[in-house]
Design brief:
CATH class of the largest domain: Mainly Beta
Helix content: 25-40%
Shape: globular
Strand content: 25-35%
Largest sheet: 6 strands, mixed
Structural class: alpha+beta
Number of helices: 13
Strand order of the largest sheet: 16-17-18-19-21-20
CATH architecture of the largest domain: Beta Barrel
CATH superfamily of the largest domain: Nucleic acid-binding proteins
């Protein structure tokens, strides 16, 4: 389906919106101070090897050491590109492959998320417009998203081009290279080999923990990764960045330059399709469906859950049809929300229970059809015995909520806070605990106004009884700058 790309640029932040049928489908955000690390190549130093976890921690100059698992250590035969026998070859223990203090060239394959450091690989790959270059591997392959009957012919073409000068290195043809000419492929091959040559020179000249190669910024990746035959326009609101993209596009992606335009309108570019309001809604739990049903989306560190509800939808002839139509609509809405929120990892969807097997099959087929549009790898399982659909979506960067939000200072991410009465009772218990250890002249309670009001009114008898029991006066003081769960007891 045809779509438009809107780019809102400022010195501190770049935002890219993919709009389809006047509705926001994807949002990509890159902040100059928080730019992602995936694709970056570093000269790292091994700081610790953990045989029990078959992993190692690598210092690449970040705040937290990065993580290298034995499965990501390149041994000359990479499982993704080897034959069936090589895939079943025994894994060499990590303690026999790396050692503390060793210098390693590594590449980030997953950004740091939460308390976890970046994940690394020693299998280096450099992405171009049409190809991915594998400098340590002579394998030549074709994206599995390209139809099977076309792959072998494309692979033979690529072999002839890649090994024309008997230079080492393998290539994977990306999906958008399916219809590329030999001249376009050769241009990408030359660019990637030049880039790798620069990386090798930097690795010899720079000290450990240095950045050797940085992946393209978000603006450049728009042309490389997001533009296809369905892209109608690419509009950007910065003239300076428009000229930069034009120059980059003319060199690496000439076909995209014709779609590039400088937006000069008086309204902010994101106001054209209400993008900022869509982003705000994508940070909430509840998503309304056009039929009157709704989704509840909860994101945790372990998984994301999606609950489908009929809400006020009563348009079908009977209740079973209502459920079926709500689930069909939800299937498309969930796919959009996964892309918009960039949700990854394990995702469990609780569709409304359907009694008819044909309805279940139809909903699952509709869900799978929508997911095929997702450029991120997804796998979907059939309905479980409990009526749940389990799926995974590859996670390579933070979700929209993790990027734009942080845990609430009061609830610490729980989504709930103690009631004023719960806090009041905690205060009474704490006073009793401290009275057994100390003997001040007076106990003074500092708490939120709502908690103080409760202690002065409804809980005044309990407060007076406690004061009489410990033999000390208790005074109350309202503090307007603290949360309802917070309090302080001052010994005077």
């Amino acid at each position: 389906m045809q779509h438009d790309i809107l780019i809102n640029w400022s010195p501190q932040e770049t935002r890219v919106a993919l709009v389809q049928n006047a509705a926001l489908q994807e949002i990509h955000i890159e902040r100059s101070l928080e730019r992602g690390l995936v694709g970056n190549i570093y000269s790292g130093r091994v700081v610790r090897v953990l045989p029990g976890m078959q992993s190692a921690f690598i210092d690449i100059g970040m705040e937290r050491s990065a993580f290298l698992h034995v499965a990501d250590v390149f041994t000359g035969v990479h499982a993704k590109h080897s034959d069936a026998d090589a895939q079943h070859a025994p894994v060499v223990p990590i303690e026999k492959q790396v050692f503390e203090g060793q210098s390693l060239m590594v590449q980030v394959i997953k950004d740091p998320i939460g308390s976890k450091g970046a994940r690394l690989s020693t299998q280096i790959s450099i992405a171009g417009r049409l190809l991915v270059f594998l400098p340590q591997d002579n394998h030549v392959g074709v994206s599995q998203k390209i139809p099977l009957e076309e792959r072998e012919a494309l692979r033979r073409r690529l072999v002839n081009l890649a090994h024309r000068d008997e230079e080492k290195g393998g290539f994977i043809l990306r999906t958008n290279g399916e219809d590329a000419s030999d001249a376009q492929l050769q241009e990408d091959i030359d660019y990637l080999r030049k880039t790798w040559a620069k990386v090798k020179v930097a690795s010899q000249q720079l000290a450990p923990k240095s950045l050797l190669h940085q992946d393209l910024n978000l603006l450049q990746r728009v042309l490389r990764d997001m533009v296809d035959e369905f892209t109608q326009t690419i509009r950007i609101d910065s003239h300076e960045q428009f000229e930069m993209l034009q120059k980059f596009g003319l060199e690496f992606m000439p076909s995209a330059v014709a779609k590039l335009a400088h937006y000069k309108g008086e309204r902010p570019i994101f106001d054209l399709f209400n993008v900022d309001e869509e982003i705000k809604q994508a940070l909430g739990r509840k998503v309304m469906l056009k039929s009157g049903g709704y989704l509840i989306i909860d994101q945790t560190e372990a998984m994301t859950t999606v609950d489908v509800n009929t809400g006020g939808f009563v348009g079908a002839r009977n209740f079973e049809d209502t459920i079926y139509k709500t689930n069909l609509e939800a299937a498309g809405a969930i796919d959009r929300q996964l892309r918009l929120r960039n949700l990854g990892g394990v995702i469990v969807t609780d569709f409304i229970d359907m009694q008819t097997l044909d309805h279940r099959d139809s909903v699952l087929a509709e869900f799978s059809k929508h997911l095929k549009r997702d450029k991120v790898k997804t796998t979907v399982s059939p309905f479980s015995a409990l009526g749940l659909v389990e799926m995974t979506r590859k996670r390579t960067r933070e979700s929209l909520a993790q990027l734009l939000c942080e845990p609430c200072a009061q609830c610490q991410g729980r989504g709930i806070v103690n009631t004023a009465r719960t806090t009041a009772y905690n205060i009474l218990r704490e006073i009793l605990r401290e009275a057994r250890q100390f003997s001040p002249r007076e106990f003074r309670v500092l708490a939120a106004p709502g908690v103080i009001d409760l202690l002065q009114e409804e809980e005044s008898l309990h407060l007076a009884g406690l004061s009489e029991f410990i033999g000390k006066p208790i005074s109350l003081q309202a503090e307007f700058g603290i949360g309802d769960e917070q309090f302080n007891i001052v010994l005077l």
